[in-house]
């Protein structure tokens, strides 16, 4: 990413699952994400920083409300 100054970009697994939740034909047009730069723990890497892209679940977003509804209304059977 040119603006953040880091060539290495890592997407969160929850973001990937949210993008592909409805399949390949019904991909969402917009999603809220947060971009953050983190220090690279791998000392062998030529890049000191990497960019992490997790999904941002605001209380007003539809995905957040659906997750809340599932947690409150569905019983987990063991």
From TrEMBL:
The keyword Nucleotide-binding does not apply. The keyword Ribosomal protein applies. GO terms for cellular component: cytosolic large ribosomal subunit. SUPFAM superfamilies: Ribosomal protein L31e. One of its GO terms (biological process) is cytoplasmic translation. Belongs to the eukaryotic ribosomal protein eL31 family. This is 60S ribosomal protein L31. It comes from Gulo gulo.
């Amino acid at each position: 990413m040119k603006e953040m100054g880091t060539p290495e970009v890592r997407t969160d697994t929850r973001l990937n699952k949210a993008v592909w939740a409805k399949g390949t034909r019904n991909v969402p047009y917009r999603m809220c994400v947060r971009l953050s730069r983190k220090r690279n723990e791998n000392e062998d890497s030529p890049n000191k920083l990497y960019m992490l892209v997790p999904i941002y679940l605001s209380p007003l977003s539809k995905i957040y409300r659906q997750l809340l509804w599932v947690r409150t209304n569905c019983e987990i059977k063991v």
